[in-house]
Write a structure and sequence with these properties.
The protein is an alpha+beta fold. The chain is 39% helix and 19% strand. It contains six helices and six strands, in the order E-H-E-E-H-E-E-H-H-E-H-H. Strands 2-3-1-4 form a four-stranded antiparallel beta sheet. The protein has a two-stranded antiparallel ribbon with strand order 5-6. The protein is elongated, with a radius of gyration of 17 Å.
Length: 174
């Protein structure tokens, strides 16, 4: 079954050279993702927010990142996939509610300094909706973002453990 996933890819760019924001956006567009939202506000990093459909989040995200990498400057690599760790403000923004309304609800323990695993937050919110249908937020609009969470977490773990080569996204050889 095809599902829509909404996620961000964050690429590290090669050190020692300046990168034109418009040229970097053109790299993403050249890979076939002309509806991506591009972020270049952090020197040395390029972020692309995308919505793509597929069977499972990890596969979709990895395929998209592999399609983009060859178009980026040589030496670029995938640094991070989001959503993975999120703040209550991130979640509230997706649900179009105030952060304070989430703070009044039972939430899982933060992983660190106010950051939560997106999959744990989704589980808690889904449970709250099932137990009390009158809860005042609409999770449906945020489902593609939440759906990408598990794939983002797995890819980030595989990158951190060295199971995937960050420059090619091929399985790393020992």
């Amino acid at each position: 079954m095809m599902e829509l996933f909404e996620f961000d890819l964050v690429f590290s760019l090669p050190e020692g050279s300046t990168h034109d924001a418009f040229a970097l956006a053109d790299c993403i567009y050249a890979a076939g993702f002309d509806d991506a939202v591009i972020g270049t506000g952090q020197p040395g990093l390029l972020a692309a927010s995308l919505e793509c459909a597929g069977e499972d989040a990890e596969t979709v995200i990895r395929q998209v990142a592999r399609a983009i990498l060859p178009h980026l400057p040589a030496g670029s690599w995938l640094r991070e996939v989001r959503p993975d760790l999120v703040s209550l403000a991130d979640v509230a923004g997706r649900l179009q509610i105030k952060r304070q309304s989430l703070q009044k609800r039972p939430m899982p323990q933060p992983v660190t300094h106010g950051l939560y695993r997106v999959t744990e937050i989704f589980g808690v919110l889904t449970q709250q909706l099932n137990e009390k249908p009158s809860v005042r937020f609409d999770i449906d609009n945020a489902k593609p973002w939440f759906a990408a969470g598990k794939g983002a977490q797995r890819l980030n773990a595989r990158l951190a453990l060295g199971d995937l080569d960050a420059a090619s996204l091929d399985i790393a050889t020992a």
